[in-house]
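Narrative summary of target 7.
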Amino acid sequence: MMILPPTSLRPGDRACLALSGGADSTALLLLVHAANALPRQALGVGLSAVHVNHTLRGAESDADQAFVEALCAQFDLPLHIFRVSTEARSQAYRESIEEAARTLRYDCFAKLLTERAATHILTAHTLDDQAETVLMKLLRGAWLEGLAGIAPVLQLSVGPVLRPLLATRRDDLRSFLTARNQPWREDSSNADERFTRNRLRHTVFPLLRQENPAIDHTLANLAELAREEEARWTAELVRILPQIVLPGTPVRGGGRSSSTTPGEQTRALELERLRSLDPALRRRILRATARQLGVRLSFEETERVLAFAGCVSRSFPAATPAKPGTRLNLAHGLTLERTLRELRLSVVAENIPKMDRLPTMEPRPPKA
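Modeled conformation, tokenized:
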């Protein structure tokens, strides 16, 4: 008998399950419903479900929605349905279909949390999803925070998203459903190897398992280590940044002022202090400073900036500091200026990429 792993849900919470109709989310529904019905150890939470129809597969997408509607009726669960245009979002923002779909899903989750239709969202991410995500991030050159993969709890500004099945294998969930004669929907796009995740799932992971049968657990363990390292570094940066990062520019007579350019934000780092730091902290400080201006630095950009400041690194083992007055322009309008004592980072707000939401979400009232 498969048991729902412990969650942070408490009696009185209202949990809304993200229900696609696939095996993982169907199994989560059965597990949460069973846990909520235990005579002595019931979760004591109000349950509902949310289904996002991405309208990507025509009649198949509508059939998924119909399956979810019937499943929720069977379990007497209120159901929130959102119909979104993922293709339109993808084209408008030049995102991949996967990126656009995720953004729209989480827009829907945020709407439910904002309107207090739920206090928590539950998703059915599995250990397999975690391993695939970590490998995708690794292949794309992610920093350590990227290797943290899928967090067990994602804290949105309007409420939490929980992933209670993150330590559970996908095959175990299918075996659980099969033993109960519970059908589920198969998304035909999961076999389409034009998508990176599908190529990894169907081609790369079988090869990796020949070398390491526990590769999924290994990558999931890496994610946990990276997540804990990030938490430690985040706490350290909260303490250190105010001591190192200076706002604006110095003015005659002492003190500092904001830029005279409308909409410009400026941060500065003392060069000697930056050079005195160890490489790991140096990179963290620089990237965190750029993040304060709304810009994410890649590894290559970070190394280039450090070389500009005269910091030796493996990429630039003989870095020579730029002369005072020299400027360096990077992506997203980030400008660096080398003064006699400081490295200044500035950006004009209008140059920071804006991610305004595309009005493609059409919510429907919940079905009782």
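Residues 215-244 form the longest helix (30 residues).
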